[in-house]
Amino acid sequence: MGCGKCNKGKKMSDSNNNFRKEEIKETSGTISKKLNMIQSFATALTSRGLKNEKVSKATKQLRVLSCFGNKQDGGVLPPCEYLRESSTPGKHFCGGCGCGDRKGTWLVADGEEYSKLDYPKLSCPLHMPGFTNYTPATPDEAVSPITRRHYIENMQYKDIEKVKVNLFDPPKDQNNK
Questions:
Q1: Into how many domains does the chain fold?
Q2: Looking at residue 27, what DSSP letter applies?
Q3: How does pLDDT run across 81-108, given as a tens digit for each residue?
């Protein structure tokens, strides 16, 4: 979502095994960075709408893979190098987007809460699969060490479907059936 200045929080993974490190492409100028961050945040908020719309299950699964990887489920994809542990136990945030560690920026929320990965329109500083600003991998990303983006793009759909995500749909109001 923005500047990439806030890298506070405990880094989740220093070892990306056979995966290439990816750098966040910086926009020029501090004012430009802040404007991009504000615009990205406003786009995410408005995409939620008045009815707290959420992204589809398949898109959220791609986002969870892009951020958390699948090593915890026996796969080989490590978490994103910018994933950070929150000061709140059990919560995580993106250390690359510049949003910091706050309840509204946690990637995954509990139960009925709305999380960052639930927004229909959401940008990733690395332009990963599942995000609104996703950019497909280039041919050089397939050269060893490959990128995480290339790996996710080449996963079998059945493996992506296995990614566990929390989807909460609030009860429909009697007037909005």
A1: 1
A2: P
A3: 999 999 999 999 999 988 889 998 999 9
